[in-house]
Model the fold of this input.
Amino acid sequence: MGKKFVTYLVWLGIAILQIIATQVVTFIASLFTPSMENFPQTQPLLFVFILGITYTLGIFLIGWLALKLRWLKIEPKLIARLIGTLVGAYLPLVIALFIYRPMEAGNPFFFVAMLTGIAGFYAGGWLSNTN
Done:
């Protein structure tokens, strides 16, 4: 039972690191994208595109690092995990684009997109097993 608890703790720690990484990558992208703070009002499609890419990069890179360092003892299946992360990150953002006009800071779909992106990272490995 102790080993199982440690495994769950490692998965939780990696998920928290993935959430932090989404914020760090988004911040770095905002430094290189001029006037990104106005994108939700002026260019919502571009905003969703950039946010989806930064969420995907943050989640996938930490997940890839955890797989490479063998913190996660699961099969890599990197392409399936990348696709799962992309779908998981973009689906809530696209839904939010239609529901909330304009998308403002603190929108709950931003956090939902992070969580579904993380779920997509793990589901990508599980779903690629079924043929």
Remarks:
- The chain has one domain: 2-127.
